[in-house]
Amino acid sequence: MTRIIRADPPGQENFQAEEDRLFVRSVGRAMQVLRAFHQASGPLSLSEIATRAGIDRSAAQRLIHTLLMLDYIRRSSDDRGYLPGIRILDHTWDLLRLDPVVQKATPVLLELRKTVRERVDFSLYDETRMIYALRMQSKRETFYASLVGHSVPAYCTAGGRAALSALPEAQARDIVTRTALHKYTAKTETDPDAIMTLVRKAHSDGYAVVVDELVQGEVAIGVAVSREEGMPLGAIHVAGSLSEWTPESFVRKVSPLVTEAAGAIVGSL
């Protein structure tokens, strides 16, 4: 199977939660079934879902049947496995249309995209990762780069480091040390102390710059969108190709525009 570059949610929820009398364990297990698809590159069998969800086959069968009846899971076209169902998109739309930050960011990013003519994204902060909520592509379109809901690690992305730089340093360091630090390219920084040095630089500069760390041949600038000190809500990412830009020229041209856009979003909240 093709490896999916996707950041996992921070921490693992305790779906048993026996001491929490309000926690509905059957709902938690249903969410585990849906999460089984997070790293999948194709349809999953009943056994694969049970294994990935950490539940027994009998429970998985009942949950899959229920979710299938509700259209939150569907059979694959060859009828050999299961895929997420179309009804999940209803909830994606609800999140995006009702989120006040996404509402305010959308017109700002549309204007920014017209100006920079490079890929412009807006992501929401989720502690150890950033989740893309708005994606505006450039001439170099790729499948994964066009999808909302895709998540990337905070420690090695421009928007992620910008978001971390808006936190108190001790909190940012705690997040970095709790993250699985993978090397996505030869230049991905995985040393916690070196990452924190880059986070401090982003705090000082007002933006983060990442070159070749998640995507080979790409330079990206990220600026945090924060309501108040220590509370990042998300980040703007702008990415360009190293075949067209040097990191220095990209920063010189794009960083003032991204900083202005982030300020406009914060000022409208």
From TrEMBL:
Spans traversing the lipid bilayer: none
Location of the HTH iclR-type domain: 24-86
Keywords: DNA-binding, Transcription, Transcription regulation
InterPro entries the UniProt entry points to: GAF-like_dom_sf (IPR029016), HTH_MetabolicPath_Reg (IPR050707), Tscrpt_reg_IclR_C (IPR014757), Tscrpt_reg_IclR_N (IPR005471), WH-like_DNA-bd_sf (IPR036388), WH_DNA-bd_sf (IPR036390)
Gene Ontology molecular function: DNA binding; DNA-binding transcription factor activity
Domain IclR-ED: 87-269
GO biological process, one term: negative regulation of DNA-templated transcription
Domain of life: Bacteria
PROSITE patterns xref list: HTH_ICLR (PS51077), ICLR_ED (PS51078)
UniProt-recorded name of the protein: IclR family transcriptional regulator
